[in-house]
Amino acid sequence: MNKVIRVDMSQLTVSVEPVPTRWAGLGGRGLTSTIVAEEVPPGCHPLGPNNKLVFAPGLLSGTPAAQSGRLSAGAKSPLTGTIKESNAGGTAAQQLARLGIKALIVEGLPAGDTWYRLHVTQQGVSIESAAELTGKQNFAVIDKMIDTYGPKIGVMSIGVPGELRMCAANISVKDPDQKIRSHGRGGLGAVMGAKRIKCITIDDAGAGKVPIANPDKFREAAKIFAKSLLDHPVSGEGLPTYGTNILINILNEAGGLPTKNFRYGQCAHHEKICGETMHDTIVARGGKHKHGCHAGCIIQCSQVYVDKAGGYITSGFEYETIWGLGANAMIEDLDDIAICDHLMDDIGIDSIEGAVLLSAAMEAGIIAWGDGKECQRVLREEIGKGTPLGRILGNGTASVGKVYGLVRVPVVKNQGIPAYDPRAVKGIGVTYATSTMGADHTAGYTIATNILKVGGYVDPLKKDGQVDLSRNLQIATAAVDSTGMCVFIAFPALDIPESFTALIDLINAAYDLSLTADDVTELGKNILKLEHDFNIAAGFGPADDRLPEFFSYEAIPPHNAVWDFSDEELDAFWDF
Fold first, then answer.
1. Radius of gyration of the chain (CA)
2. Are β-strands 3-8 and 101-107 bridged in parallel, bridged antiparallel, or unpaired?
3. Residue 348 and residue 180: Cα distance in Å, rounded?
4. Strand partners, 548
5. Which DSSP letter does residue 157 get?
6. pLDDT of residue 32
7. Which residue positions in the chain have pLDDT lower than 50?
8. Total tally of structural domains belonging to the chain
């Protein structure tokens, strides 16, 4: 990857630049956050002309290494006001890497009300009219682009909520089966909408393979790395069989499954929505219980969920979405949850933020608890069409809480808290509080150690060791997010020494480097620090690294745990 492409939407011009030396060793999150930190004024309005939207494949994207198909997108977030990186599967990362594009930077805002489409090919990037796409939701956009260019075209698009610059809007990425993966969190779809880009199409016809400096060493490391993925019980057995939704019963047993807008830690109807039920339902109906989100995925934690007649409903049906709608919003029918998931893919909103905001809407009395059909109507008719109610909801959980005067509003830095209760699993609470991007479980997934006992064990109900655990995992995750690898490679990397060594060997073989484990750790530390510095310059301080107050006085059954970290204990996170 030897070029950086800038698209200036103010002038409607495109330029191609060589990769600056200081960016040469970066990819994915490391590169998007570096570019945002260098080029975006921290105090700018996220939807204004000075914000930039950056796409970057990871260091290993486009290579034959397993799990290396993630694309990072970065900007200043309109939802949190912080720096933001969100990575997704699909075909775009590998296509951009094959075209030699290390970063695609979109800057400025166009004059007028014209909508545009960026078309990326081996010859460069052209700015096309998107008049025929305006007002369409994501699946219609993808279908139109397939009709125009054929099934191999890569597509990144926004739905109507993105056009309307709603803070829950995501950027949807076409996957190998013409369905959708998402740059979900942080409202990056609103940033793309502000720049009046409806979609980005990628045609990599004629592009060669991604060059590898030492193919023999690469193949050897790739073999060891892939074996470790398949040997680990989580990545090699649990996730391929039951998907991420295997966690419903595990978290319910642990008392950390947030239920009815974080009132309880266990859900009475967990068996109706758990991974085992989902698996049996999919198999009985003739769907696919394992499925990859990009070429080269061997974990295959995704699935294709179908209706009773075998018709497609949704894919990439994740634990966090099923938890949010099933336990937190009390919807008991897995089909209703699946239809909601499909609708969120289609209109283009983050399915975690979407599920949490719908729970908040139930708390506010807008929707009855457990009413899946009404949730579908609200997604389709209100948020999807941008009605006044839809805009209140579509701007996220914090927006709903503020407009309706709610107290139990589970957000950190305005981003909805995901599927693990921080009172019963305290390590993930530290991650929610201190993440540079608002509440984000993937930033430092302590569930691995607190609940799954991967990489050791730290008692989830005690405070001891949680800050160190979260810090170490956040540093490691920042580095992994820079490689283009799926975060689930962390399971074998934490338990099987050869796995982490093989990951470093892959990078060294690809670029003829001699990185060590310490170098990778330093990379993760540097990324976190530059993101933290950006946030401080944007006006954030220690007081923003806190969980909502209700967690400290509402004890959650069955453990009757409360959030009891002091400010000093949380602030110690940044002592590195």
1. 22
2. parallel
3. 10
4. none
5. E
6. 98
7. none
8. 1
Alpha-carbon dihedral sign for residues 337, 340, 344, 346: positive
Residue 220 pLDDT: 97
Crossing angle of helices 517-537 and 466-480, in 10° steps, is: 100
**Which tokens sit at 523?**
């990379």
DSSP state of 371: -
Say which DSSP state 349 is in: B
Domain for residue 92, yes or no?
yes
Residue-range definition of the domain harbouring residue 95: 3-202
Is the CB of residue 441 less than 8 Å from the CB of residue 447?
yes
Q: Give, in order, the Cα–Cα distances in Å from 272 to each of 161, 187, 322, 448.
A: 31, 31, 11, 24
CATH number at residue 60: 3.60.9.10
Report, in this order, helix, strand and coil percent for the chain, each rounded to 5: 45, 15, 40
The confidence score (pLDDT) of residue 342 equals 98
Helix boundaries (H) for 348-483: 351-363, 372-377, 388-394, 397-403, 426-434, 447-450, 466-480
Is residue 222 assigned to a domain?
no
CA angle, 74 as apex, 113 and 31 as ends, to 5°? 135
The identity of residue 83, as a single letter, is I
The helix (run of H) or strand (run of E) holding residue 13 is strand 13-18
pLDDT reported for residue 171: 98
Contact 266, 561 (CB under 8 A): no
Domain for residue 173, yes or no? Answer: yes
User: What does the pLDDT read at residue 259?
Assistant: 98
Q: Which helix (DSSP H) or strand (DSSP E) does residue 192 occupy?
A: helix 188-194
pLDDT of residue 138: 98
- Tell me which DSSP letter residue 183 carries: E
Residue 150 lies in a domain: yes
- Which tokens is 566 given? 């002091």
Tokens representing residue 400 in the block? 């709903």
Confidence (pTM): 0.97
Instruction: Tell me how far apart the alpha carbons of residues 279 and 147 are, in angstroms, rounded to a whole number.
Output: 33
Say which residues have a Cβ less than 8 Å from residue 317's Cβ, sequence separation at least 6.
243, 245, 278, 302, 303, 305, 338, 341
pLDDT of residue 151: 96
Of 214, 220, 219, which is closest to residue 514 (Cα–Cα)? 214
